[in-house]
């Protein structure tokens, strides 16, 4: 067991303190602190048998379950470095393992249990220089990868001692749906908060409306941390009409811009639920945030341990809990500790409204178009349930606006395109009106993380 005075030691000690309480609900089965602690201990012995210790990178493929959660905590206890991977990473698994210098690869069966796990010891490979330097600290680490939307994925190394500082003060916990994936920093942050505070983590078999609603209802979940894209899917699915979700007290959303029409509809669908916009980056952590009100996209971000400023319209952040560094790229954090997030924002009275990422701006003949603005207009059109806007090459203008749209019910595609183009003309400047429309099913607009799948 790590020194109880360390952040990791204090965190793992919460399992002992809550030995008789439910800390995890997986596939409807409750796990007490004592039961999960037993699984952690078993993993510690198993990992020690493979010579896992401080600095050892342990990769594992799977989603939330008692096996994956207990393995994560065992890796932390041994001062090793956890590298969670989603099934979607299998295509470039070899490259990711090589970047991190992973020595162990654990694969889980469909039930995500420890009993279903197989451990593969990988052959000797060159150790990453950053990992070697970090190893000297003896601290537990975490590696997550960026999505690779601009270039190849970057490996991000975090010091778990730093990450856990924000959880040092015990606060009331929530019965929380573990929606954000394990290999996503936001998901890791959610998992930690469930156990650091007196909360309960509730797993879902799929990130789709029906199974999520079932999990909320069955386990009396209070908190749903999710994405605007999933909330749109939820509104369009009809699952709300068939579910009893009265236990929900808070819905948090982030990871992508929230369209104003979606926020208004969610607010109407959940009149007694608090709605909160969140903000964070894998490199810097999750910032404290407070929305102006439940129907506003303006929020205050920062708080203890974070500083913010705006430079050329882009948000810059300085954090005490920022990453150790990239494993395979130069650090984006300057000598003074500031990082340019690439997020374009408006500022008013100390509050921010996010406009979108600079890399996603569409340049139409020298005029800028924010995809989120056009998407919000399209979502206000009758029967539109989802819209994704992107730029496409144009021989004269450089780029043109294109839209993928999902509609409710059946309607001739030519009629849909005609009425949507006219609706946009009435509500947007001419250069912002999409030149092309593609009608697709709503589920085709989301990726495996329930985020908008914006064509490149």
UniProtKB/TrEMBL annotation:
AMP-dependent synthetase/ligase domain sequence ranges = 20-312
Q: Which family does it belong to?
A: Belongs to the ATP-dependent AMP-binding enzyme family.
Q: Which GO terms describe its biological process?
A: fatty acid metabolic process
Q: Which Pfam families match?
A: AMP-binding (PF00501), AMP-binding_C (PF13193)
The molecule here is called AMP-dependent synthetase
Give GO terms: molecular function aspect only. Answer: medium-chain fatty acid-CoA ligase activity
InterPro entries reported in the protein's UniProt record = AMP-bd_C, AMP-bd_C_sf, AMP-binding_CS, AMP-dep_synth/lig_dom, ANL_N_sf
Can you tell which superkingdom this protein's organism belongs to? Bacteria
Q: What are the AMP-binding enzyme C-terminal domain coordinates in residue numbering?
A: 373-442
PROSITE patterns in alphabetical order: AMP_BINDING (PS00455)
């Amino acid at each position: 067991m790590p020194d109880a005075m360390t952040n990791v030691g204090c965190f793992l000690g919460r399992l002992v303190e809550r030995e008789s309480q439910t800390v995890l609900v997986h596939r409807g089965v409750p796990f007490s602190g004592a039961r999960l602690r037993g699984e952690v201990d078993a993993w510690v012995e198993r990992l020690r048998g493979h010579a896992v210790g401080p600095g050892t990178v342990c990769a594992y493929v799977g989603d939330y379950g008692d096996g994956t959660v207990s393995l994560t905590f065992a890796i932390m206890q041994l001062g090793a470095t956890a590298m969670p991977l989603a099934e979607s990473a299998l295509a470039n698994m070899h490259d990711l393992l090589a970047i991190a210098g992973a020595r162990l690869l654990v694969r889980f069966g469909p039930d995500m249990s420890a009993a279903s796990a197989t451990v593969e010891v990988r052959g000797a490979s060159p150790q990453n220089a950053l990992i070697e330097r970090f190893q000297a600290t003896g601290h537990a680490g975490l590696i997550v990868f960026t999505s690779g939307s601009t270039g190849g994925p970057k490996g991000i190394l975090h010091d778990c001692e730093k990450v856990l500082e924000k959880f040092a003060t015990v606060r009331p916990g929530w019965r929380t749906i573990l929606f954000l994936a394990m290999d996503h920093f936001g998901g890791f942050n959610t998992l930690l908060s469930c156990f650091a505070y007196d909360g309960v983590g509730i797993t879902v078999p799929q990130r789709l409306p029906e199974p999520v609603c079932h999990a909320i209802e069955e386990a009396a979940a209070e908190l749903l941390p999710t994405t605007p894209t999933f909330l749109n899917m939820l509104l369009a699915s009809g699952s709300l009409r068939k579910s009893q979700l009265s236990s929900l007290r808070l819905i948090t959303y982030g990871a992508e811009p929230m369209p104003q029409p979606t926020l208004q509809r969610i607010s109407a669908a959940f009149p007694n639920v608090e709605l909160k916009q969140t903000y964070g980056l894998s490199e810097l952590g999750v910032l404290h945030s407070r929305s102006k009100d439940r129907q506003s996209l303006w929020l205050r971000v920062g708080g203890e341990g974070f500083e913010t400023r705006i430079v050329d319209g882009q948000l810059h952040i300085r954090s005490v809990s920022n990453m150790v560094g990239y494993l395979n790229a130069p650090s984006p954090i300057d000598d003074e500790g500031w990082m340019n997030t690439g997020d374009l924002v408006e500022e008013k009275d100390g509050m921010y409204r996010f406009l979108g990422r600079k890399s996603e701006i569409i340049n139409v003949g020298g005029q800028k178009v924010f995809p989120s603005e056009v998407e919000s207009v399209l979502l206000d059109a009758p029967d539109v349930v989802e819209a994704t806007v992107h730029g496409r090459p144009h021989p004269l203008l450089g780029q043109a606006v294109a839209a993928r749209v999902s509609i409710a019910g059946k309607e001739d595609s030519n009629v849909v395109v005609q009425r949507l183009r006219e609706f946009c003309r009435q509500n947007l400047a001419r250069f912002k009106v999409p030149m092309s429309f593609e009608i697709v099913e709503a589920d085709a607009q989301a990726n495996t993380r329930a985020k908008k799948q914006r064509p490149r």
